[in-house]
Write the structure tokens for this entry.
Amino acid sequence: MDRRSEADARPAPVGVWATLRYLGPGLIVTGSIVGSGELIITTRLGAEVGFAFLWLILLSCAIKVFVQIELGRYTISSGETALEALDRVPGPRLGASWVVWWWLLMLMTAFFQIGGIVGGVGQALNIGLPLETIRLGPLSIPFGVTGYVLLVGLSGMILLYRGRYRLIERTTTAMVFLFTAVTVGAALLLERTPYAITGEQLLEGLSLRIPEHGVGTAFAMFGITGVGASELIYYPYWCLEKGYARFVGPRSDSPAWAERAWGWVRVLKIDAWLSMVVYTVTTIAFYLLGAAVLHARGELPDRDRMMAVLSNMYVETIGRGGLAVFLAGSFAVLYSTFFVGTASNARALVDGAGVLKLARYRDLEHRRRWIGYLCLLYPVVCCLIYLVSDSQPVFLIKIGATVQAVTLPVIAASAIYLRYRHTDARLRPGRLSDLMLFIAAVSMTVVSAYQAYVLLSSR
């Protein structure tokens, strides 16, 4: 059922500056991507194998945007949320489509992933401002990483409980700008150090070679760099809140509706491609830093020394001020992922409860109230997971990343189904876009199948 109103309909903006005002969902998703995928898993992969998987980094970032655009196109066409769309996918049903239940399984592992992110933020803050105890009169209260983790969780609860789209967009955009500038700057400064990257190393990274070790980390990296499975589902929610689908108005057979819808699809595509450029450049920079510095030093970021090891990439390239730059950048990277992940998963959970017939919402305000409640609960669960995990953020993130990688073919196949069976025929893309959508689906399936083979053969 199309819940949009004709009163909200408006034409898409024309011109560069007018269009820029309506960009934003892609940058929000970028803020979610870069914390766990780029700063932690990508640099870990570079530290393990050097430059060998540069080609996979590029593939991971470039190929998934076609699935992202197709899901966004369907949202504009129908006005439906991501999970309402996935509920249309045929197959076994138990109150909802099997794809919705698969999403619920992936969401459970996302708690581990965000838990690892919160732990990374706590470690970064503790490096920058070591505070092992707090004195309150005669009392000496332990603080350290645990205290910072709890503080991070509390700050997210406060900001997001009443946080609407504009706050989330502006906060995330500022953080994306900060970590992109810091990381790309550090990568460029490599040329002034003993870790300068050679043309031979870059050619090695583009040779399509699969090294004997590091495949598990590479698979996890493929799952959450670029637009991961979670972000593919998040994106339609942020497109809805930005107004892309609402501004089209309820679907009709009129030429005016089709023209208006095409205009907003154009805005969506610019938004998705611009964010792809941002996260691809940032991801490459993180990978090169890990491959050039950490691999050469024989250091792997792990457990409670994860952030301390990662900081060496910046200290070695920038010098004495590198630690401060790293702490500022890593805080922006990790906190943005925690911030956006919490906001996005709260929206998906509320929507999923409705799709699974576990909840009914009287109106939009009732739905928003439940989103606020979950923005209070979600950080609590993620903090608890980290605190009982024996300080293993990389392991926690790998759990979520691996399940996301397995989920990618499911999301891609669902996007293809929606494109051919439910997207308004007047909004369907051309042959080149269709070809790239199929290539994306095949690539995701091949990577997932290869990882399954590696796991089974290693037993």
